[in-house]
Amino acid sequence: MSETFTKGMARNIYFGGSVFFILIFLALAYHTEQTLPKRTNEAAMSESVVRGKLVWEQNNCIGCHTLLGEGAYFAPELGNVYERRGGEQSFKPFLHAWMKAQPTGAAGRRQMPQFNLTEQEVDDMAEFLKWTSKIDNFNWPPNKEG
Amino acid sequence: MSVTNPHLKFASQAVAKPYFVFALMLFVGQILFGLIMGLQYVVGDFLFPLIPFNVARMVHTNLLIVWILFGFMGAAYYLIPEEADRELHSPKLAMILFWVFAAAGVLTILGYLFVPYAGLAKMTGNELLPTMGREFLEQPTITKMGIVVVALGFLYNIGMTMLKGRKTTISLVMMTGLIGLAVMFLFSFVNPANLARDKFYWWWVVHLWVEGVWELIMGSMLAFVLIKITGVDREVIEKWLYVIIAMALITGILGTGHHYFWIGAPGVWLWLGSVFSAMEPLPFFAMVLFAFNMVNRRRRQHPNRAAATWALGTTVTAFLGAGVWGFLHTLAPVNYYTHGTQLTAAHGHLAFYGAYAMIVMTLISYAMPRLRGIGEAADERAQTVEIWGFWLMTISMLLITLLLTAAGVVQVWLQRLPADGAAMSFMNTMNQLAVFFWLRLVAGVFFAIGLCCYLSSFRQRGRVAVSEAATA
């Protein structure tokens, strides 16, 4: 860096640039807030969905699975599991049966713990995953395998 | 600490030592759980149900975050007094906070290991203010509050030191980074019921830490060590530092958008996130130029070769891990296929190791000989062992990254690219990737050997110290 470019200039770029982009970021956050209710179909976010999210969190599901691509990469994506596993007709019974069947105990296979969820908790989780699958996220993941 | 240490400019810098020692102890734990998970990737039921994968992962990632935080705090306690040219405001407060933070950390990890997570949530009253169960922010709400208290005490302590002393660019930048770290952490208490909104603000902690304010902390630590080991004029170093952090924030703030592609956020993020995050390698590239330039222009041959190796190594590895591997999958059309695959894991490992694990070890390498009363540097043999540790760990981590990248590419090929019906399921894809995961585990074992090598370099330094003390 030549001597015509001084420390003071570098500092001004740092301060000016940071403040400028923080303001733009906040404006974009406001824009995001305005669009989220529609994109996520917030009207359909029932109490059951909200309870389901808490069940999801309090059992650390994110420690193995991804949800909308974020989380651990040890077990399948669940943002679209509603569609993958039967949708409107059969997802709920599927989830009940699945949760009861864990762990499978198959030797050498990855095991999902038994979480001892109540019927209500599994119902709530199903509602939460159903609602999540309908978030408008530019059709991610690319196919139903997640 | 009753005997004055002649190798420290200020006696109160000594509080950095327990922070560094504890950081390295947690690092060992992190690698141990990394190895457990590496094995669980191929032998799925290993240690099940004693340590299920989700628990091992939570311990692995939380230990990482906490040891890096201990490293940053130790670094601040070491360099802020030296930059401010006065004793730390309160060494006693620093020691109290050390024990509070260490105890909270250990209790939380023990909680993860010995209490089922749902039970831990119940025990700690998560339902009153639900913050748990989100990636990296799994800590019980009460632990998060403890972290805030520790952070406030810490900021007060180094803030007072700075206010009463000399204000340099390095200390101002570090302070800005640390305040930013504490402020952004407050968003860990924001957990809206709407999942998309939850994820939106979750990234204000995670992204604006590692691709934002942490880069300020890293930059200031690097600048401090480079001034010390090269003797290059402070004006030059500080100009570089401003350029680097300007680039970091100008690209990194809107770069947050690359996490907003597929979570329900609006489309503006698709192109803004792509464009700005594509420029995020720039500050890391500038750090490489910075470090090599300064070392080439050095005015003195510092006896601590190991510290110079770490300083150069952290910039190159961070550029590769955060810069190149980040760029690989940051453009929205690419990320559509790679999001949440083993490619993400590859990037995460090299970026965290290169940028943050290595910058903390850079500072430890520079400061530890002084903190331990040995002198400017450890003896030649100890440094050689330390540099062996450096290469073993760094090359192993590069191998882990390359193997996970290969796994990720095959995963995208099998599971993501084909249409419905033709695409392979996640679990079947994992079976296909087993060979990569086995090799990754081998690389992980070499990393652990490198870590042992690195740690054993401290043992040799100790022996030197004893003999010096005996002759003194």
Per-chain topology:
The complex is a heterodimer of chains A (146) and B (472).
Chain A: H1 7-39, H2 47-58, E1 66-67, E2 70-71, H3 81-84, H4 87-101, H5 119-133
Antiparallel strand pairs in A: 1-2
Chain B: H1 16-40, H2 53-84, H3 91-114, H4 117-123, H5 141-164, H6 169-185, H7 195-230, H8 234-255, H9 268-278, H10 281-296, H11 305-328, H12 332-338, H13 342-371, H14 380-416, H15 426-432, H16 434-471
Helix pairs in contact in B: 1-2, 1-16, 2-3, 2-5, 2-13, 3-5, 5-6, 6-7, 7-8, 7-10, 7-13, 8-9, 8-10, 10-11, 11-13, 11-14, 13-14, 14-16
Organism (chain A): Azotobacter bryophylli
Domain Cytochrome c (chain A): 47-133
Protein name (chain A): C-type cytochrome
Describe, in plain words, how this protein is organized in 3D:
The complex is a heterodimer of chains A (about 150) and B (about 475). Chain A has about 150 residues and is mostly helical. Chain A has two domains: about 1-40; about 45-145, Orthogonal Bundle (Cytochrome Bc1 Complex, Chain D, domain 2), CATH 1.10.760.10. Chain A is built from five helices and two strands. In chain A, β1 (about 65) and β2 (about 70) form a beta hairpin. The longest helix of chain A is centred in the N-terminal third of the chain and has 33 residues, at about 5-40. The radius of gyration of chain A is 22 Å and the shape is elongated. The mean pLDDT of chain A is about 95. Chain B has about 475 residues and is mainly α. Chain B is about 75% helix and about 0% strand. Chain B contains 16 helices and no strands. Chain B is globular. The two termini of chain B are about 20 Å apart. The model of chain B is unreliable at about 465-470 (pLDDT under 50). At the A-B interface, α1, α2, β1 and β2 of A face α2, α4, α7, α8 and α9 of B.
